[in-house]
Amino acid sequence: MASVARVTTITVRSEKGFDDAVASGVARASETLRNVTGAWVKEQKVEVSDGRVSGWSVTLEVTFVLDD
Amino acid sequence: MASVARVTTITVRSEKGFDDAVASGVARASETLRNVTGAWVKEQKVEVSDGRVSGWSVTLEVTFVLDD
Amino acid sequence: MASVARVTTITVRSEKGFDDAVASGVARASETLRNVTGAWVKEQKVEVSDGRVSGWSVTLEVTFVLDD
Amino acid sequence: MASVARVTTITVRSEKGFDDAVASGVARASETLRNVTGAWVKEQKVEVSDGRVSGWSVTLEVTFVLDD
Amino acid sequence: MASVARVTTITVRSEKGFDDAVASGVARASETLRNVTGAWVKEQKVEVSDGRVSGWSVTLEVTFVLDD
Amino acid sequence: MASVARVTTITVRSEKGFDDAVASGVARASETLRNVTGAWVKEQKVEVSDGRVSGWSVTLEVTFVLDD
Amino acid sequence: MASVARVTTITVRSEKGFDDAVASGVARASETLRNVTGAWVKEQKVEVSDGRVSGWSVTLEVTFVLDD
Amino acid sequence: MASVARVTTITVRSEKGFDDAVASGVARASETLRNVTGAWVKEQKVEVSDGRVSGWSVTLEVTFVLDD
Amino acid sequence: MASVARVTTITVRSEKGFDDAVASGVARASETLRNVTGAWVKEQKVEVSDGRVSGWSVTLEVTFVLDD
Amino acid sequence: MASVARVTTITVRSEKGFDDAVASGVARASETLRNVTGAWVKEQKVEVSDGRVSGWSVTLEVTFVLDD
Amino acid sequence: MASVARVTTITVRSEKGFDDAVASGVARASETLRNVTGAWVKEQKVEVSDGRVSGWSVTLEVTFVLDD
Amino acid sequence: MASVARVTTITVRSEKGFDDAVASGVARASETLRNVTGAWVKEQKVEVSDGRVSGWSVTLEVTFVLDD
């Protein structure tokens, strides 16, 4: 039998760093989606204020397996 | 705290022009999705009948912020 | 009036071949989504065990028309 | 039976705007090609003179159906 | 001496499958073009009706050698 | 003798539309740069508020010829 | 502990079809490489003779796990 | 009035070098096409025999202006 | 009124890690450019000496708002 | 005299994070390859279990200089 | 300490050939920019007059190190 | 029977020019690899010292046929 997964794209902003942004995005996606199995980091950006990085954001392609 | 937005892709066809296609797509997306904040125009196509443009369609990547 | 379609991405794995993976993905998507009109094959991969192909998977961008 | 369409690339320059460039390109292509059914806008450029836009040009991939 | 080939793009739709679409496109191109030597499969799409694949289409870049 | 042009990237936001964004960007670039000859529209985005487009922004690659 | 896989690119030509080309490439790669786990189909081409497809070739990115 | 140019793709092989391949392709295209104005070098490949380069080939996108 | 931002590309090398490279690049850009608002991480590379990472470098596209 | 380097692609999975994945991949590649001089991070992915990141993997293009 | 380089894009046209275009662009860039260390050839185009190449132009991404 | 070729990536630096870099890379690859049949020029870069080009480097994807 065939198995099917969906891929959805999210953008996550953290005030701590890229690693936290990825972890937060995965956690948030798992609240609404069942069976999240992975995510691909597609983009990494930073926000800048007064010459310092004040925000880190990542675009993730999140994969989750569909129930049969 | 981290904030999260989702990105969804739609294709919109208008009989008036590209600007109307973008506006219609944004309006339609906002009916079902809360907190739409922006859209990226990824593709622009036209349909042709009898040597004239009879339809304009755009592919949009629509961003909307997820509620906490 | 403008008409709007959505595009969603799925990954489908079949134990029979690429054609079956595409057909299964389309069938599975049509169970939950109304008015699926087409799909674009974006990626094709195989799994290998003991020097033989043991699984075929495709990534599909599925288009479905939104009801008004 | 299989149906076949060809895709040809044209670049069109208008002195009025992007919309006129697309319409002109479609009209010009339809003079020599039968059964033009659509076009994809691949690139949009402007020419500039004295700080103002003096020309709009688009690159189109024009599709036309081949007669059997 | 230099030898020259041209590349032209076609889109072919079959009601049987991707393999038939490729074969039909190659056959159709060879009717009008001499010395077709190969084709590159650039895109693969399916049409869907009632949850089943009802059409297979491929975009081919067809190469043919120009006579001197 | 060789002639040399530079390419610089700008992002312009207009509250009127894409055409105005392009024209404004070209005008603004021409204030500081001499001999602007053209611009390539690389990206088109919209901002959305309350289900309506409230801002149009374009990313332009602006070309200007260097004096000898 | 970290696990490491290598990715190598091969091009395979079959006289039977794309499926056979993939299977042959996987089999051939497994003769010299241990622990081949999968392959990604990157390109699909056909050779043409007398208006018919006479060869199918695929470019594969083959993954194999490195022993510790 | 709008002006229109077409873009066509050719592949040229020379036994002398890349520069000769480009020049030959431009010359050959100008035999059949009127008003060739330029060409973009998209790909550069070499053929190898006995550890030496025996052929140079380029893929060109040739632009020519259409008569009104 | 339209607002305009410029995008400039820098490459930054750090001996501490990717995060430090991003922060250093943002700080360095802010010394010479006013109103830096963000940066996009386009590439990430490492230098290697004696089997260990000895340098981390990132390519950033830095955005800064132009004064009116 | 000309100098030559090879580029090879590896995928590395770590249970600690992206930085560890890069470092591990570089270390592992240096065991079998002499003169590794750098690596380019091409892709970053995470595995997810129970809503948390359980694995970090990177795809690296590793460069090593060939001995004469 | 971190070191920073900037990347700027130029287009250079020569009446002699591609090699001259690259050399001229590098020389011209070095007149205004200090510490130019390299350049990446991104595009190669030719102009055509009367069936012969009459101009060669290249697009270069020029790198120069910023003073501390 | 299926035939199989491998593709490997090398970067070659010459102090004479791009043509020499390609020729040197092909020659060097043929020392260790049997049956090299061709190479694709993927990237072209120059090194700059004191406003002059001091090195030319190319990235090649080299194809060689595997023995049965």
Automatic annotation (TrEMBL), chains A, B, C, D, E, F, G, H, I, J, K, L:
<protein>
    <recommendedName>
        <fullName>Dodecin domain-containing protein</fullName>
    </recommendedName>
</protein>
<dbReference type="Pfam" id="PF07311">
    <property type="entry name" value="Dodecin"/>
</dbReference>
<dbReference type="InterPro" id="IPR025543">
    <property type="entry name" value="Dodecin-like"/>
</dbReference>
<dbReference type="InterPro" id="IPR036694">
    <property type="entry name" value="Dodecin-like_sf"/>
</dbReference>
<dbReference type="InterPro" id="IPR009923">
    <property type="entry name" value="Dodecin"/>
</dbReference>
